């Protein structure tokens, strides 16, 4: 007689919230799906895609550590890539994001935010200044929303006579090569000296003779490159990269613990449409000229908060004693008053400590503030720390 | 006559032989294994469970001496990405808890059904034991999970 309780010990209380997010009704697959399968990937749904979580050769923990020591390849082809062209492309995009796009040099890349009328964040994005276009990469979970937003406003601008067009890049697949060995690994296939390529720049480079866009950026806190490769060649280039013994495939499991250690936000968890740049501690993304001039959606709210140090809460980093604290765990003041909530939490593989991002009431966000976190029926000590939790390994010239 | 006496004594000898208790292994649909030895059950999570969880980084086991009810949360096993509650499949008293596995969480991945045991319960209700899945039923469950 079988046990009647069907609940499984494996129905995890919290899998990374975004990992279980569903997008479209039928799952999409990237051009690397078969390659992932051949490497024994365990797949999971993410933003409407079947993405590899982990591979047969190592667990998520070892994959994380391997990335910090050597190099890993992440399939990020599910992210949205767009190109914006036309004489008025800067004026157009500056209406939607907080970046100063006029000051950004050709080849320069910057993290920016799409904003909404309440001053909240609709997505974060990396924008690269190309010679006659803007190259925009944004989150898979916001792909439909971002594209609709861009197209809607492009139409408005076009109707007013502006010369601008938004083009979705459908024929290139994006992979991220991350880790201290990345430069040497890529140089083997690119036949160029990458030592003089600065962090947060992008350029067109031939990889194995194939023209690709290479950005020195990533989501791990390590040196690395995000490669936009013609989809017909992404499998062969990925395989060629994997021929280097230092390179292993890595999935979303390691990706999340790496980015959290690096203090990088996950849209939908640590930032969302209700969090303002001031609250999210992302005011640095608002260009100096933009702070003076405004001219982006929600500027009135955002600039007022910057001027008056407004916003009711602040995003902080926490180190927590005891059991790992996960998203939605309550944060309490030292006296036990509820003052906030954790948005992402993980037992940090590189630190052997439990780390988390949380929003706390303004005033409780100073470095070294002693707080408490509730995990199940226990209250555990926590301390506010500056992020990143792990020192960055970005390339310095 | 001698034969009958002989056979009688033979019979009584057989009855006097202690009945061997073989440890029985049972399972729950929540992927715990239960090894029954007389009235003490040793409990852990199955190989299927540790594989699905990934690298275990944190473990909590119940306190020795605690009384637990069937289905009560008695511990937790966490991987980098997820938290899984451990439920007691039997009502009774915790007679032992594996402190090794708390210090060396990798034991659960390496040896989930032996060195990675979590706790022992002195149980009271044989009916609860009978209600657990046997190996064949558990295998069927894990196979259908694909």
UniProtKB/TrEMBL annotation, chain A:
Compartment(s) where it occurs, according to its Swiss-Prot or TrEMBL record: Mitochondrion
Residues at which substrate binds: 226
* UniProt key word Mitochondrion: yes
**Reactions it catalyzes:** N(6)-[(R)-S(8)-aminomethyldihydrolipoyl]-L-lysyl-[protein] + (6S)-5,6,7,8-tetrahydrofolate = N(6)-[(R)-dihydrolipoyl]-L-lysyl-[protein] + (6R)-5,10-methylene-5,6,7,8-tetrahydrofolate + NH4(+)
Domain annotation GCVT N-terminal: ranges = 32-288
A Gene Ontology biological process term = glycine catabolic process
Any idea which UniProt keywords this protein has?
Answer: Aminotransferase, Mitochondrion, Transferase, Transit peptide
- List the record's Gene Ontology CC terms alphabetically: glycine cleavage complex; mitochondrion
Q: Which InterPro entries match?
A: GcvT, GcvT/YgfZ/DmdA, GcvT/YgfZ_C, GcvT_C, GCVT_N, TrmE/GcvT-like
GO MF, one term, reads:
transaminase activity
Say which domain of life the source belongs to: Eukaryota
Which EC class, in a word?
transferase
Indicate whether Repressor appears among the record's keywords: no
Gene3D superfamilies xref list: Aminomethyltransferase beta-barrel domains, Aminomethyltransferase fragment, Probable tRNA modification gtpase trme, domain 1
Q: List each copy of the Aminomethyltransferase C-terminal domain by range.
A: 313-390
The record's comment on protein family reads: Belongs to the GcvT family.
The subunit structure is: The glycine cleavage system is composed of four proteins: P, T, L and H.
State what this protein does: The glycine cleavage system catalyzes the degradation of glycine.
Instruction: Please report the name of this protein according to its UniProt entry.
Output: Aminomethyltransferase
What organism does the record attribute this protein to? Answer: Coemansia aciculifera
UniProtKB/TrEMBL annotation, chain B:
Protein encoded by which gene: GCV3
Xref: PANTHER family: GLYCINE CLEAVAGE SYSTEM H PROTEIN (PTHR11715), GLYCINE CLEAVAGE SYSTEM H PROTEIN-RELATED (PTHR11715:SF3)
Task: Output this protein's name.
Answer: Glycine cleavage system H protein
**Pfam families linked to this entry:** GCV_H
Which lineage?
Eukaryota, Fungi, Fungi incertae sedis, Zoopagomycota, Kickxellomycotina
Return the similarity comment: Belongs to the GcvH family.
**Keywords noted in UniProt:** Lipoyl, Mitochondrion, Transit peptide
Q: Where in the cell is it found?
A: Mitochondrion
Its assembly, as annotated, is: The glycine cleavage system is composed of four proteins: P, T, L and H.
Q: Which organism is it from?
A: Coemansia aciculifera
What this protein needs as a cofactor is:
(R)-lipoate
